Amino acid sequence: MMTGGAATSAVGITTAAPTSASRPVAEAPGKTPNEEQLPAPTSPTAGPAALVLRIRSEAWIEVVQSDGATLLSQICAAGTVQTIKGTAPLRVVVGNSAGVEVQFRGAAVDLGRYTNPNGVARLTLE
Fold first, then answer.
1. What is the pLDDT along the chain (126 residues), one digit of tens a residue?
2. Which of 89, 95, 74, 99 has the alpha carbon at shortest distance from 124?
3. 52 FRET partner, CA 20 to 30 A, in 12, 39, 89, 103?
4. Cβ proximity of 44 and 88 under 8 Å
5. How many of the other CB atoms lie within 10 Å of CB of 111?
6. Is 49-125 in CATH node 1.10.760?
7. Distance between CA atoms of 83 and 89, rounded to whole angstroms?
8. Domain residue ranges of the chain, discontinuous segments joined by +
9. How big is the chain by its Cα radius of gyration, in Å?
10. 18 preceded by cis ω (within 30°)?
11. Pairing assessment for the beta strands 120-125 and 6-8 based on DSSP bridges
12. Within the chain, where are the H helices?
């Protein structure tokens, strides 16, 4: 049933008829509809280096930044996550490396190639 530009269904839902207000509006000149102001890109080495350690099994971890300051030196409990920001290069030692997942600047790091037969990984992240 149509009355005054609106239709009512048998269940009482009213839908408005299209009006001139539903027509597309012209965009302001000089900008495309999807144009956004994006921040300038930064290099992956700019700013502090982000290191994320996901500890699946208890592990001893030490992280030392470029100026020699120790950022972490402790036994980390299973099920915890350590997020460390420091100045690269970061020297990292991980005891029980099989129980730790490492991400540096958003990329996974395979500790296997840095791990000795005793399960200790020693690496420098730049």
1. 544 555 444 444 444 444 444 454 454 444 434 444 444 334 444 468 899 999 999 999 999 999 999 999 999 999 999 999 999 999 999 999 999 999 999 999 999 999 999 999 999 999
2. 89
3. 39
4. no
5. 20
6. no
7. 16
8. 49-125
9. 28
10. no
11. unpaired
12. none
Six-digit token pair at 26?
């012209």
> How far apart are alpha carbons 105 and 36 in whole angstroms?
26
Q: How far apart are CA 122 and CA 91, in angstroms?
A: 8
What is the residue type of 23? R
What's phi and psi for 112, nearest 5 deg? -50, -40
Chain Cα centroid distance, residue 9: 48
- DSSP H or E stretch at residue 94: strand 90-95
Query: What is the pTM (predicted TM-score) of this model?
Result: 0.63
Q: How many CA atoms, within 13 angstroms, populate the side-chain half-sphere of residue 53?
A: 30
User: Both tokens of residue 95?
Assistant: 């005891």
Contact 122, 93 (CB under 8 A): yes
